[in-house]
């Protein structure tokens, strides 16, 4: 009887989390996949099986192709920059400098601010003419510019905001990893007359690779699920220059009420993230451990 209880109790403890995970993650994902093969029901018209029609129509959907391109550019621009900046900030606040605690708090502060509040703050920064960025650039003779109204600059402006917002969060992971590195390594390198750059390149950076893989996965996921800043700052404009995949899914589902096509878009988004996760875990994970 006691042996039976020991086997049952762990499963009972896991049951609440399993139910919540299934109810809010796995079951909706399965239903979304199923709905992507049906037409959206409207009024008295029931849902009808349409097969791969939604997926084939994506190839001729210019907004979807623009959102896919924008998201790829957004991820390629924000992920490496956020990783590099967070690593640099972690190295700075891990060193023995005055005001280290205040600097750590300053770097981490953007992370705790609400997404909507951050978007409104940066709306003021990007305001043409009297915004902080134009005021600063005006000191050097630059003319005012509509940063969020120009197709050439709107996506880059969102990328700058994302890097500023996420770098402080990723810094915490790098800081924890740096504090796990034995100080005897740097002491031995100093006795050998090794430069700081050589020590970082050959010792510190390889030891940080597992953390970098973890941060990279989270940064890529964040880059494909961004929607708050787009809604507040640009609404995908101008001319879909800042439309990202999740924002397009939101528009199709809740503005155009085409939930079936939105389900197909969601399946594609999940497939892209699954493919990236497979590459990262299946390929990169074997090469990140320092030997």
TrEMBL record:
Give the matching InterPro entries: ABC_transporter_permease, MetI-like, MetI-like_sf
Q: Which GO terms describe its cellular component?
A: plasma membrane
Cross-referenced CDD domains: TM_PBP2
Which spans are transmembrane here? 72-93, 105-125, 154-178, 199-221, 260-284
Could you say which residues form the signal peptide?
Answer: none
Recite the UniProt keywords alphabetically.
Answer: Cell membrane, Membrane, Transmembrane, Transmembrane helix, Transport
Q: How does it sit in the membrane?
A: Multi-pass membrane protein
User: Ranges for the ABC transmembrane type-1 domain?
Assistant: 68-278
GO BP: any one term: transmembrane transport
Where found? Cell membrane
Main localization category: membrane
Q: Known SUPFAM superfamilies for this protein?
A: MetI-like
- Which PANTHER family does the entry link to? ABC TRANSPORTER PERMEASE PROTEIN, INNER MEMBRANE ABC TRANSPORTER PERMEASE PROTEIN YCJO
* Similarity field: Belongs to the binding-protein-dependent transport system permease family.
What is the name of the protein in this document? Answer: ABC transporter permease
**Source organism (scientific name):** Aquamicrobium defluvii
């Amino acid at each position: 009887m006691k042996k039976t209880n020991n086997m049952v109790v762990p499963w009972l403890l896991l049951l609440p989390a399993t139910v919540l995970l299934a109810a809010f993650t796995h079951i909706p994902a399965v239903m979304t996949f199923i709905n992507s093969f049906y037409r959206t029901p409207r009024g008295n018209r029931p849902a009808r099986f349409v097969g791969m029609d939604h997926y084939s129509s994506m190839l001729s959907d210019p907004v979807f192709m623009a959102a896919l391109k924008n998201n790829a550019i957004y991820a390629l621009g924000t992920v490496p920059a956020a990783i590099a900046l967070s690593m640099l900030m972690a190295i700075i606040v891990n060193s023995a400098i005055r005001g280290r605690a205040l600097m750590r708090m300053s770097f981490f502060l953007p992370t705790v601010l609400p997404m909507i509040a951050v978007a409104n703050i940066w709306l003021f920064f990007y305001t043409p003419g009297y915004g902080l960025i134009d005021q600063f650039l005006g000191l050097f003779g630059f003319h005012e510019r509509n940063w969020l109204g120009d197709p050439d600059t709107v996506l880059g402006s969102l990328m700058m905001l994302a890097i500023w917002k996420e770098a402080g969060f990723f810094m915490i992971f790098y800081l924890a990893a740096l504090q796990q590195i034995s100080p005897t390594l740097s002491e031995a390198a100093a006795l050998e007359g090794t430069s700081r750059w050589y020590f970082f390149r050959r010792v510190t950076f390889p030891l940080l690779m597992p953390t970098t893989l973890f941060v990279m996965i989270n940064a890529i996921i964040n880059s494909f699920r961004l929607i708050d800043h787009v809604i507040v700052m640009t609404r995908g404009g101008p001319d879909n220059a800042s439309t990202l995949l999740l924002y397009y899914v939101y528009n199709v589902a809740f503005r155009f009420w085409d939930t079936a096509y939105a389900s197909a878009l969601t399946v594609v988004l999940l497939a892209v993230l699954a493919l990236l996760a497979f590459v990262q875990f299946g390929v990169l994970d074997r090469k990140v451990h320092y030997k």
